[in-house]
Amino acid sequence: MNMSGGSMEYLSYKVEDANFREDTPERKAFRAHLRKVANAMHKIEWNDSGDGEDGEKGGSALHIQFALSIENNGSIFVGGGGGGGSGGLITFSLSGWGSVSGCGGGGAWPLGSGGLWGRIDSTGTLSADYVDYRGNNMYVGNSGQDASLSTFGTGGASRDISGSIIGAGGTGGDYDTWSGGSGVNSWSGAFQVYPGNAGNGGDTGDYAINGNSYITWVTTGTRYGAIV
């Protein structure tokens, strides 16, 4: 298992830095598309290499692009950022090699889904501990909790495997906060330890309301977050 990136030999950097002329609108548009592809490849590579994945950015509550009237008798909140996933862990001790995948980050308030456990095999489909064909113990991290209207989601709980502890996933953000995933907390009883990197928490959403000039407010109600 690779740690700290490298499962694709850092291909995302080569894609992002591809050298070609950008002297037409089509070529400039293609460059912008490559940046998005490179960003996605970077996240996949880091996740596949046992590192924690960054939390996703929270979305805007309202994005208005045409005239309308709003009677807000409740509250409008910008979304919080998702919690980052913790890094994976590989250990070697008297009992042999072992691997623990990362734990998912918590979902951001109000409706964010919790991050899943880190992948522990090449297919990314296994969700239970197992012993591989070499006799190595493979342990799956815990998933983060979904958010609800009453609270943001907590990160996946740490796994303690014979004293080798993998860090918990980060807590999901509220509308005005965000939390990063924690890394490996501590370990004992292992001769060698190879920890992956924890993911960062996602940013809060851009705006509570984007396109305020289009809106005629009958009742403004409660609004949290930037209004533009």
Descriptive terms for the model:
alpha/beta; 14 strands; disordered N terminus; 13% helix; 3-stranded antiparallel β-sheet; 228 residues; 5-stranded mixed β-sheet; flat
* Radius of gyration using CA atoms only: 21 Å
Total strands: 14
Which bin fits the share of residues in helices? 10-25%
Kindly report the average pLDDT value: 74
Described by strand count, sense and barrel closure, the largest sheet is: 5 strands, mixed
> How much strand content do the residues show?
15-25%
Helix count, per DSSP? Answer: 2
Gap from first CA to last CA: 46 Å
The strands making up the biggest β-sheet line up spatially as 6-7-5-4-11
Q: What is the 3D shape?
A: flat
Class computed from helices, strands and strand pairing: alpha/beta
Series of H and E elements: HHEEEEEEEEEEEEEE
Low-pLDDT stretches are 1-6
What does this structure look like?
Strands 6-7-5-4-11 form a 5-stranded mixed β-sheet, with no helix packed on it. 13% of the residues lie in helices and 20% in strands. It is an alpha/beta fold.
